[in-house]
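for ur thesis appendix - Transcriptional regulator. copy paste whatever u need, i formatted it the way the template wanted (i think)
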Amino acid sequence: MEPGIPRTDVLIGREELLAGARAQLSRGGSLVVQGPAGIGKSTVLRTLAAELSGTVRTVLRCTATESESHLPFLALADLFGLVLDEVSAGLPAAQRTALESALTGRGESSLQRDGLALRLAVLSALRALAAKGPVLVVADDLQWLDSASAELLGFAARRLGETPVQMLCAVRTEDEDWDRHLRACPPDTLAVRIGPLSRTQVSALLDHRGYTGLPRSTVRDIHRTSGGNPLFALELGRALAENPTPPRPGEPLPVPTSLRALVLSRLEMLSDEARRTLLVASAGARPTPALLHAAGRENAEAECAQAAELGLLATEPEGPAVRFAHPLISAALYAEAPAQERRAAHSALSTAASDPIERARHLALASTGTDPGVAARLAEAAELARDRGAPSVAASLSLLAARHTPADGEPAPDDRRLEAAEDAITAGEVDLARDIAREVLTRATMPADRVRAWMVVVEAAGQALGDVDAVFPQALADAGDDPRLLALVHYQLAWRAMVVEGDFAEARAEAAHAAELAARGRDRRTELMALAFQSSTETLMGHPDAPVTIKRALKEPQDPYVACHHNGVGSARFRWLLMSDQLTEARATITGLLREVRRRGMVESEVHYLRLLAETELHAGHCGRALDLARESLRLARDTGIGEGASAMLACFAEASGGDTGRALALAREAVEHAEEDGDQMYLSRALAALGYAHFVAGDAPAAVEALRRVRELEQGLGITDPARGRWHGDLAEALVLVGEPAEAQQVIDVARGHAMRLGRESVLAVLDRSEALVRAARGDEESAAVRLTSAQDRLARLGHGLEEARAAFALARLRTTRRQGPTSYDEAARLFRRCRALPWLRLVDAAAVARPAESGIAPGALDGLATMERQVAALVMEGATNREIAGRLFVSVKTVEATLTRVYRKLGIRSRVDIVRLAAGRRAR
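the 3d part is after this line
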């Protein structure tokens, strides 16, 4: 590790790498960790060595440095210096003499003169140590190992065979050329490369090391500048924390001296002209030789070639672009240059760049003070960036425009700052948006500016609207009696009523009032947003006016922004289609919306629509596709800090259906925690529904019942009556059957069926039929149950709900197996689940197939009169299964098994498990 550079904590984001390394080491193999400087090799090495130290007898360590790499046998002395007395006595005289001379420097040992004796001495020493217990050799910075030590270690390593000696090494490599360093390691050594951290992992690392509160836009810049290198990222974070004045828009991050020295050590070898050429390249967004020529760098090719030879530029061409070997080199080079030289570079690029956005940006960075002409150019560029779907760029340009706008300019500087804040919201950079809005509020006096800024603060709060309660009275006061401004505030009050208060009736009333105010003020955009919200609320409530409100929201004139916004008209129409079982049209609608918001750069809407498309695919039974989409939504949500709870909730459903139930449960708990922290009752009910479903698929019916009962209570309090909103009713009813509560299950079904019939929710009715079939089977009415299951499966297949269809087939197979009438194969259920790629459900099918009673184990009629669950438990008792084993095979709790056995004893007039076996055996004998 380089002197003066702080140690990094790179275990964040290294879980998969560590798992593979541990597997290799647990098999007795050796490992080489490789990667560029600062990537975290030493920390990984220390972690693995610490874990292994308790399982080996001897640990030999060496850490090489570049300044000492010319000293022969130095690494060997580090490794064997402390154990020389322990091993030397057992060595032959020639080997002992050669080794002692090499390690102590008292003789004149050399590879040329004592080569064979030294090689054999190292091999013998390792074998002697290993004879007393396993040996671990830990070598950091293998690239600086002196050549003599490397040769001796390699000779021994190739001949150790089954000797219990493992090597754990780290080597710095800037590319994939690492194999030459393996000459010092055993033949079975595994080489693993440590890659860069993702933006989310860099953010977590910065938080872990105390650099908290950084805006996400700044974290994005740190990630880009560091290239995902944890050491570089931490040093950049430290520099920002120590800098009282954050960089202004368009300015680079402050690069600390430690990193400048690390990456620019070869800059002194460049000519002055080459250095100026590289400065122009570092100032440009996409530098090419042609751009450098246009900017006045006549010898750009030769000067770039010189820089490439020194490792400052990438040697592999990437199209026509001039690419720095690492982003930090560009940042450090720019930070090192005097301000006057930077402005000169930007001035040259302001005429050389072909893109108008780039020209405007360079013009701003080349100018000082206010200039209406520059400000106008920047505002035009911001509008162009907005149209191109780059709201983050638009926000940066608008801030630059505000900086160059005179105080009495038109539009005013704060108008442009608020445009930047609104663009930042669209781009998902809520921290930046909030900071801009609060800055404007410190001096704004115009009601329109103040209300506009307050609305940015509210938008930036996301689902945590309770945190900005104090904003609403101030915003209403600033709005006065202006209907346009009041409409904005009442629209946000509608969201507050839903999210914070959980009062759908109040939310609907506020949205309707906002729409009326916006219509009076001729603000069509806000009117459409309010109508979309009103229609969504009415849909969830099962309100009879929902179809009429949707039609009002779809009337012309439309607003392109509202049409694709995640809270807009398109989203409301999609939700209606999905709840009405129009899956094909719903998929087409949401796919078109996702395409449009990606084009516009609307990050929050993209997170939302990825989630909704995943939900559509789940309904259709495309679990693999849904899992991919849900994971993508969750990655983007975590990367931007937008909608993390909602995306975790949907990812739970996807994991429980097509992935891993353990991950599903963890995601559900995360979603519940987010909703509870935000005070969001609506999403809390969805998160608990996900938790209940995950428990159900994982085989924990009592836990599923507990979570889903909470959902029922929450939705009753919220006034949500449409069972197509969460579709949890069937899961609760089926879990209640498994825990021996068929009466409550029937009550859940009856209530949900009443609402589903009123609203025409056909797929919900089919699922409820499946659930009621299980209730009837539990009560002994198996003929009726089989008929209802067959009908439910057919209806779900016709509606295109593939996963629910497969669940009906599974329930029918289990019923037939228990009744021992008709086909008892699970093949149909397995085929349907396989078509859906519903892996957790396939595992349940396999377990049920294994758990079904053997033909010879149950006498015909032996268990007549028992319900389905009772018969299954009794059959497994006959096989000799314990209560815990029965619970595991039937995916219920031990308590449920005990209660079921109590009912079996009562119905059969017996007292114990033994009596069940005797009864069955006696009937078989007759």
